[in-house]
Amino acid sequence: MRFEYTKAGSGLTYEIRNIVEIANRLIRYGVEVSWENIGDPVAKGEDLPRWFKDAVKGVLDSSKAYEYSPTKGVCSTREYIAAKNNALGGAQITKEDIIFFNGLGDAVSHTYAAMHVDARVLMPEPTYSTHFMAEVLHASFPPNTYRLDPYNNWLPDLAEMERKAQQHKSIISILVINPDNPTGFVYSRELLEEVVRIARENELFVIFDEIYNQIVYDGVETCMLSQVIGDVPGISMKSISKDVPWPGGRCGWIEVYNAGKDPMFDRFINAIYRQKMAEVCSGTFPQISLPLIYEHPEYKGYLLERVNHYQKLAQTAVEELGKSKYLNVTMPRGAFYLSAVFKEGVLNGKQKLPIKIAAIQDYIESVLSDKDPFDKRFTYYLLASTGVCVVPLTSFFTTTNGFRLVLLDCDSARFSQTVRKIAESVDAYVESS
Prior knowledge:
Blueprint: H1 15-27, E1 34-35, H2 50-60, H3 75-86, E2 98-101, H4 104-113, E3 120-125, H5 129-139, E4 145-149, E5 155-156, H6 158-167, E6 171-177, H7 189-201, E7 205-209, H8 225-228, E8 234-239, E9 252-257, H9 263-278, H10 284-294, H11 299-321, E10 327-329, E11 337-342, H12 358-367, H13 374-386, E12 388-389, E13 391-392, E14 402-406, H14 412-430
Parallel strand pairs: 1-12, 3-4, 3-6, 6-7, 7-8
Antiparallel strand pairs: 2-9, 4-5, 8-9, 10-11, 11-14, 13-14
Helix pairs in contact: 2-10, 3-10, 4-5, 6-7, 11-14
């Protein structure tokens, strides 16, 4: 070949799904796997109610469900979303400010791909893998980050955010994930207003990933980007994949705020739109279904029931994992994830858990190396020893060792046993050397 033509960063590993390959190999050895790694409520046993299925079946009776939609998305659905937003009383948008994609991952990919190679997004640490991988792939360099403090309820370091926004002239935007994945942190209005202030004073735009905006636990208050953004240009990212839930529908969208107020921002949004135009459109069927689901009289009660269940599982996880003296565990306030952090110095890269089948032990040791993060070693040994599949926290672009698990098991008793097993394994692993 004439030259190296693979883009730098293409070797990045999406550990949330990479560990699935490891788990599937272990299944062939007879290991029963408890999947605590991927945020798919349906895969974890949540059965969609009859009213939901009847609503979408009605859409299938219409020939419109089988057409191309306009490039930006189904007009009536975009009008519906704009009206829902405008009722909040903040920044106003029209249907022309909304673009649909084939899932939020597709929206993230298009957004970062439209940026100049030298432009960077300041993102949280840890951050959701789809965002940091898209950032690295577009720029071929690791991202700039602001820290979420695991020893202070995952509170974002706004001083670091402001300092980096001022000092690094390549930064053009700030990313906020609210509620946060992987930590479950929920931003208050005051924190969001500070983020917007930093963006305004440094001539940046903001990106708010609000995919979990409807999954906030009892007593916790936050607000939407439109309610705090003022005159700052910004993008909100949303999807039906979690709050319906319908992850297989691949239906996400962006809402553009303050279009027309900055020519560079307008050119950027137009670049995203032109990319989407080359694909023709996103799926029509879930777009048509969206208003029917959100406005169904049983939807709000259904959502509340789910959120209450996730909160109950979160409380169980905090209680059980908190019994290990080697972990720092914070109660999540939204989404359906919990990230536990190993206390400083308790991991050394030499610890192991007992594995009953010699072939499995040989396999796990063959896929691990001395260069792997300490928490990755733990998660692989946990999987091989107990069948529990979680994700190492360092795979979310952080040096903090820990792990993330999902709060989605429909069986509360079974989930309690799972997190108790994790806590016991943590103790055994740390004390193994």
